[in-house]
Design goal:
single chain; alpha/beta; Rossmann fold; GMP Synthetase, Chain A, domain 3; nine-stranded mixed β-sheet; four-stranded antiparallel β-sheet; 33% helix; globular
Amino acid sequence: MSCYQKLPTLIDYLRNRVIDQDQRPALVGNTHHRENVSLNWLELGRVVSSMSAWIASNPRIEKRETNCVGYRCENSIGSVVTALACMNLGLIEFPFDHRLGDAEIKKRWDPIGGLWLTSDIIEKQIHCESGIPDLSSLLRDRKHSADSPALVLWTSGTTGKPKGVTLSGNNLLGNALAKLKAAPQDLDDRRLCVLPLCHGYARTCDLGTWLISGCTLVVSLGYQGIQKYAPRVRPTLMNLVPSLASRLLKECNIDGLQELKLLGCGGAALSRDDYLQWSMNRGVTVIQGYGLTETAPVICSATPQKNACGLVGDFVEGWEHKIVSKQLYVRGPHVMLGYWNDPEATNAKIDSEGWLATGDEVEIDPATNQIKVLGRVDEVIVLDNAVKIHPRTIEQIVDTIEGISRSILIYQRSLQLWIDLQDQQTTIIDHQELIREQVAAVVGTNIGGHPYAVHFFSHRLEGNEITSKGTTRRAQIIKNRFET
């Protein structure tokens, strides 16, 4: 079956794999009680069927008191199986990042009031303690509207309070198909997923493309997940955020990446040095992309044949776009249904004609016709000489300097660059002066010669100042550190 042969829903691809490729490897990962669990497509189908049957028999679901299912998403076998069971039953899935505190999860989940699945419940169904399940709950013909709510993911909160983005089955299927057209993969590929499956990037570009292509998916989380699984599965495909891609370059003892052929990078721009190291020194094709949780999430993607440092490719299939005063607007089948129970915020984001305001300034590279993301519209700093500065662009360059963890460029009566050092014990004046010199070399040309000051945070950025992607929450940092 071609990965471009469109079936009605994502779960239909699983059903076909169970029938046509039953013994091929499908999923590798951990459960709560077992490590390195491997399932072929038939075994995965049986476990998903078991989970589906258990959820469907719950009195609240059976009596249709709720169609919402929530759980802690841990990038495990259980997370994938729960997601697939919700798809199978046509329920609305609410995966919460397990790294969120109990209080934050409670604050978001309590108003929803659906069926909450504990880790113990999920574990029991995975190991099929009630006996060997059949496939009846998976293969049963169900009539679900692909335009209905299927998944709620939370925005990272980079630009404000996190909101629940409601996506339909068509959003998820269409965006995964569009991403696959830009970056194809096949049955023999091994995809290592180490980004959170409760976020849009991994949900579409890892889980969605896996279901359609039929490759092997290995689920874990972060740098430790790469350390653990790369030597065993020798991945050919991997999606990362820039901070993780950079760390892998610095750590020379990671075995198992010799067969990596395609590295996707999103969430922020990959530095030029890191891009060249991956592509030239390691021979890995690097494709960068761009999108929002609200767009399921891919708007643009480079391709293996057309990629360049600092650019995020062309628009994937399905998008209309327009650029007004540099801000990008998009319209098409990948746009979210809206923010969960927040029509006011939804209407502020999507106008009456269906145009979604991305909030990002972009430009089209004249040489390649690819998109370059300049930064957030609401973060642009306008200096008194009318020069416009996009702080994110400068911060991404500064963050590549050795010894710097993160930086933030702000205007507080004067232009100030604040630096969060990787080692807070770095108090030697000479070392700080070296960092200042390196900063000056990359910042000066980007701010039109405007004077600025470099400061070092005395306390590390932490907690609500950092998103789950590792990027800074500018508004929160300013509130915490600079407002009196």
